[in-house]
Every structure is written in structure tokens, then in C-alpha cells.
Amino acid sequence: MKTKSHNLIRKETTWRSAYNLISAFLFMSCTVICLSCGSDDDPAPAQAGTGTITAKIDGTNFSADVQFVTLLDNTLNLGIITTNNAQLQVTPATEGTHQISPSSQGVVDVVLLKLSNGTTISLSNGSITISKLTNNSASGTFQGTAVNIADFNDEYQITEGTFNGNF
User: Cross-referenced PROSITE patterns, in alphabetical order (predicted)?
Assistant: First the structure.
């Protein structure tokens, strides 16, 4: 009986984690689609800029130069996963540490990284720390466990994650 209960809790946690990852991915996809709509005459966002996202993934160096760095509507966004192979998003954008865990339902803090083999991973349990946030720049760190968005059993350790951007 105890094993069956433990398995049910583990399955519930796995489904909750999967639900959070899929929800975050869909939210970001909708955000990108909505921001890309409009006429060609629309001006670029006033606060769009560039930056970098770096980390060690299972001990291997990862680095991406990112565009579309913004601070809009209390959301910090660096990069677009489909264009820059990396995306980091934090809402609300405040200095300090933001926890990411399977029980963080409704939280819109996301780190997506596309590996050189084409695998996209998402931070599923860890933290993002915004150490500096001004009207024209942001920087900080992130770390934790990430999962392959196509196979939640495929885990990766992210260490020494850093981000910085100018808007």
C-alpha cells in the first residue's frame, strides 16, 4: 500500500511538472506570436536590445548571444528560443531570487536552452537570481535541474548560468 501511494505521488508530481513546462512553453509561444503580429510599418519596441546567456550543462559550456531583450509590463525577457537558441523570462521582474519548482504553478519564470544536438531543455527545478535591474539593463545568474521538453525523464544539470542584457 505504501509503495502504491508513493508511486501515485510521484506520478502526480511528474504530471504537475510536465503541466508547468508545457504551460510555460505555450505562454512563451503565444507571446512570440502576439509580438510578431502587426504591419511591417510597426516600429521596433522602444526597449529592445541584446545580451548573452551562458551556462555549464552537465559540465559542458553553453553560450548564446540573444536579441529581443526587453523589460515590458514587469516581464524581463532575454532572447527567443527559436531564433537565439536560448530564452530567459522572469515575471515579475524584480531583483532577488526567483524559485522554479514543479509546485510553482502559475509562475512565469522560464529558462529554455537549445543544445548543439537540437535538444531543447527547460529549467524545471532551480532558481533565477536577478542581481541588477535598471531602466536599461539586467544581469544575474541561474542554476538547477533541466529536462528535455520532449522527454521529461531526460535530465540535465545547469550550473554557472549567467545572463546579461541591455534594452
Answer: PROKAR_LIPOPROTEIN (PS51257)
